[in-house]
Amino acid sequence: MSDTFQDLADIPKDFLRDGTQFVRRCTKPDKREFIKISQAVGMGFLIMGAIGYFIKLIHIPVNNILVGGA
């Protein structure tokens, strides 16, 4: 019974220890890495926006044909 309680009590301690180890290992990106990540995110925004725009562009006439031009 006390082993089970001890195991449950160790879970938050282990989580906190793992979390602090992770944060200590994290580093800020340097300028080159930050620019590379920003470019990748920007390209993703542009691509997803273009896809959404073309889908909407195709959807409007198709919807007008199906609904009846009202």
UniProtKB/TrEMBL annotation:
Q: Any stretches that span the bilayer, and where are they? A: 34-55
Q: Name one GO biological process term.
A: intracellular protein transport
Q: Keywords assigned by UniProt?
A: Endoplasmic reticulum, Membrane, Protein transport, Translocation, Transmembrane, Transmembrane helix, Transport
Give the Gene Ontology MF terms in alphabetical order. Answer: protein transmembrane transporter activity
| Signal peptide positions on this chain | none
Q: What is its main location?
A: endoplasmic reticulum
Question: Where does this one sit in the cell?
Answer: Endoplasmic reticulum membrane
- Cellular component per GO, a single term: endoplasmic reticulum membrane
The source's superkingdom equals Eukaryota
Any one Pfam family match given in the protein's UniProt record, by short name: SecE
| InterPro entries attached to this UniProt entry | Prot_translocase_SecE_dom_sf, Translocase_Sec61-g, Translocase_SecE/Sec61-g
Task: Provide the membrane topology annotation.
Answer: Single-pass membrane protein
Q: Which family does it belong to?
A: Belongs to the SecE/SEC61-gamma family.
Q: What is this protein called?
A: Protein translocase SEC61 complex gamma subunit, archaeal and eukaryotic
Record lineage:
Eukaryota, Fungi, Dikarya, Ascomycota, Pezizomycotina
